[in-house]
C-alpha cells in the first residue's frame, strides 16, 4: 500500500513525481494545451500588431457620438448632385467592392464605409436596435455629406438595409442600385471558430477560412491578403456572426424610389416582393458578385439612376 503525500520530501511524494516524469502523457493534457494556447495567443498578438502597421486604415474616421466609423471618399465631392453610397453584404466591408468603387467614382462622388466591428470600424458597445444600421448611416451622412441626396448601392443581402433606409429617410434617397439582392453574406462564424480566433489559433488552423472563394478571380493579391487578414480577427468574426444571426425585419410597403437590380443569378421571389414598383431588373449570367464579374453593367445602371436624379 502506498503512503500518503503529506510530506513533500517523503518517499510517497517522490514516487508519485517519478511516475509523472516517466509518463509525459499524464502531464500533457494539464500543461501542454495551456502552454501552446499562451504561445499562440502571444504570437497572434505580435503578428496582429505587425499587420496593423502593414494594413493601416486607408481612409478616414468619423466620430459619431463616441462610436467611430471608418469611411472613404472617392470621386469629385466638389461637384453637385447625388452621391453613391456603397454598402457591402453582411459580414463584409468596403474592401469587398474592389476596383468597382474607383470606377463608380468617375461618375459621381462615392462614399464607402465599414459597419461597426467590420473592416477598420471598431465594435459599437451600445445595444443594436431594429433600425440601428439606418440610424448609423444617417449620422455618417450628416457628418460627411449633409443635405446631399444619395443613391444606395447595396450588395447581396444588404438590400434589406437599403430598403429600410429608404423607408426611414425617404427625402434623402433618390435611387436604389441593388446588386445580387438576396445573395448571402459571410456565413456566421461558429463558437469554435471565434474561440480559435481569441486564442490565436485560427491563423494556423484555418488560414483561408476568412476569404470568400468567389472573390478570388476579382480582387488583387493585396486585397485578398487584406481581406483574409482582417477576416481572422476576433472582432470581425464576432461582428459577422451578429449580422448573420440578425432577424430580418418583417416585410413592409416598398419605398417609392427609382430602383435597378443587377444580378448574376435569378432574383428570389421573396426579394422581388420587397422591391419598389417599376423596379428594372437586369439579369446576367455571370454567377455571384455581379459588381465585380460584370462591372460595365453596374456602371450603366448607376449612370441611368444618376441621370434620372439630375433630370
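-> sequence recovered:
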Amino acid at each position: 500500500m502506498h503512503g500518503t503525500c503529506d510530506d513533500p520530501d517523503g518517499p510517497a511524494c517522490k514516487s508519485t513525481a517519478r511516475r509523472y516524469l516517466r509518463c509525459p502523457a499524464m502531464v500533457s493534457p494539464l500543461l501542454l494545451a495551456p502552454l501552446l494556447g499562451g504561445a499562440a495567443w502571444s504570437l497572434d498578438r505580435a503578428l496582429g500588431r505587425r499587420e496593423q502597421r502593414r494594413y493601416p486604415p486607408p481612409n478616414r474616421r468619423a466620430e459619431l457620438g463616441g462610436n467611430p466609423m471608418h469611411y472613404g471618399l472617392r470621386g469629385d465631392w466638389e461637384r453637385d448632385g447625388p452621391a453613391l453610397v456603397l454598402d457591402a453584404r453582411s459580414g463584409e466591408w468596403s474592401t469587398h467592392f474592389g476596383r468597382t468603387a474607383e470606377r463608380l467614382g468617375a461618375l459621381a462622388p462615392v462614399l464607402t464605409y465599414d459597419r461597426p466591428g467590420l473592416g477598420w470600424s471598431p465594435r459599437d458597445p451600445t445595444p443594436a436596435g431594429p433600425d440601428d444600421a439606418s440610424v448609423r448611416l444617417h449620422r455618417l451622412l450628416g457628418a460627411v455629406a449633409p443635405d446631399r441626396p444619395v443613391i444606395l448601392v447595396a450588395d447581396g443581402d444588404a438590400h434589406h438595409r437599403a430598403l429600410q433606409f429608404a423607408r426611414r429617410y425617404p427625402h434623402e434617397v433618390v435611387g436604389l442600385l441593388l446588386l445580387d439582392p438576396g445573395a448571402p453574406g459571410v456565413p456566421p462564424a461558429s463558437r469554435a471558430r471565434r474561440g480559435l480566433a481569441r486564442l490565436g489559433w485560427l491563423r494556423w488552423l484555418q488560414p483561408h477560412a476568412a476569404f470568400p472563394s468567389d472573390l478570388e478571380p476579382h480582387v488583387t493579391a493585396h486585397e485578398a491578403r487584406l481581406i483574409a487578414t482582417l477576416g481572422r480577427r476576433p472582432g470581425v468574426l464576432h461582428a459577422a456572426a451578429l449580422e448573420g444571426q440578425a432577424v430580418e425585419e418583417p416585410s413592409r410597403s416598398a419605398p417609392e424610389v427609382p430602383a435597378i437590380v443587377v444580378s448574376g443569378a435569378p432574383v428570389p421571389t421573396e426579394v422581388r416582393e420587397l422591391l419598389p414598383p417599376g423596379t428594372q431588373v437586369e439579369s446576367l449570367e455571370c454567377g455571384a458578385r455581379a459588381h465585380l464579374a460584370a462591372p460595365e453593367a453596374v456602371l450603366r445602371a448607376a449612370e441611368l439612376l444618376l441621370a434620372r436624379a439630375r433630370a
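Strands lie at 60-64, 67-74, 83-87, 110-113, 150-155, 173-179, 259-263, 280-283.
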